[in-house]
Specification:
321 residues; alpha+beta; seven-stranded mixed beta sheet; 7 strands; rod-shaped
Length: 321
């Protein structure tokens, strides 16, 4: 589906254009066309390939989707794959944005991406002094917007981790905490799989042999790289927190089980001592000492109670009870 198609010259918008007029505007000096597609059909992609002379391999990648984040260079054009993450409760849905960038065109193709990029288009049109750099600045604005969308997702995950840690240290060390932490770890990995490859690829756009169209904007692409470095480091730190929280939770569960075991052992000892005394005097032998002693029964009871009281306070002093 065609979302938008507009022509720009020297940083200013000329207006929306029809698909059949794209070629005429592309051939104008200092003019480029920015086309946005959403879940396009193969026929629509073939039409764009004909209008912009897109590389066949890039078109095939965009048509099939499910590519890892990357930046491929085909002659004087670029093909960029970006991932967009949508949080739906405990589940993350990963969409894909494919961007074709040439000297006189930008074609963005988004699949399974609910939120569009009208804010990016508006930002570019508000900054004509930067939009004058043409398609390269549009690429920067799209990449910057997508990276910025990762930040609130990671921030929300950090808040969830802190909430689980509070539960752990509030004597709520349960199996559910471990399951929640593993779910958080999986979601962190989803974000990392979107951000880390892009970090590696963004280095192609500044320093060293940079595509000609990106040379004036190297500082801007370096800024995106800095954001990605901080983002990946943040994700790694949160993964360490999750691992530590899982270990602490399991350790506290073990300690709680040990406390229960000690209590059960203490109560068993309180029962075992009287049982031992009663067992000795319950044996049916004819000749036993004290068997006919008139004070034998009350003394045995007193001995049982006395030993249990002594054991009880000893266990309390040792924090077993």
């Amino acid at each position: 589906m065609l979302v938008n198609c507009a022509a720009y010259r020297n940083g200013s918008k000329l207006g929306d254009v029809a698909v059949d007029d794209i070629r005429r505007h592309v051939e104008m000096p200092d003019t480029f066309v920015w086309v946005a597609l959403k879940d396009p059909t193969p026929e629509e992609l073939d039409k764009m390939q004909a209008e912009f002379d897109l590389h066949q391999l890039a078109v095939e990648d965009a048509m099939h989707g499910h590519q890892r984040p990357k930046i491929d260079e085909y002659g004087d054009s670029l093909f960029v794959v970006l991932h967009v993450i949508h949080a739906n409760g405990d589940e993350f849905k990963v969409g894909e944005v494919d961007v074709f960038v040439g000297r006189d065109y930008v074609l963005s193709v988004r699949r399974d991406v609910e939120r569009g990029f009208t804010d990016v288009r508006a930002r570019c049109e508000r900054e004509p002094e930067l939009l004058v750099h043409g398609p390269a600045y549009v690429l920067y604005a799209l990449m910057d917007a997508i990276v910025d969308r990762y930040l609130p997702i990671v921030s929300a995950l950090e808040t969830e981790i802190e909430a689980i840690e509070d539960r752990i240290f509030s004597n709520h060390t349960t199996k559910a905490n471990v399951e929640d932490l593993y779910t958080l770890k999986q979601r962190l990995m989803t974000v990392k799989h979107s951000a880390e490859p892009l970090l590696q690829e963004t280095g192609k756009l500044f320093g060293g042999r940079v595509p000609q169209m990106c040379i004036p904007l190297q500082d801007y692409f370096r800024d995106i790289c800095d954001h990605l470095v901080r983002l990946v480091q943040w994700i790694d730190a949160l993964r360490e927190m999750v691992t530590t929280a899982i270990t602490v939770n399991l350790t506290l569960i073990t300690l709680q089980e040990n406390e229960v075991t000690k209590q059960l052992a203490a109560y068993a000892a309180l029962v075992a001592v009287p049982t031992l005394i009663a067992g000795v005097y319950g044996m049916n032998f004819r000749h036993m000492p004290e068997i006919s002693w008139i004070f034998g029964y009350p003394l045995a009871l007193a001995l049982m109670v006395g030993l249990d009281i002594w054991l009880f306070f000893r266990f309390r002093k040792a924090n077993w009870l």
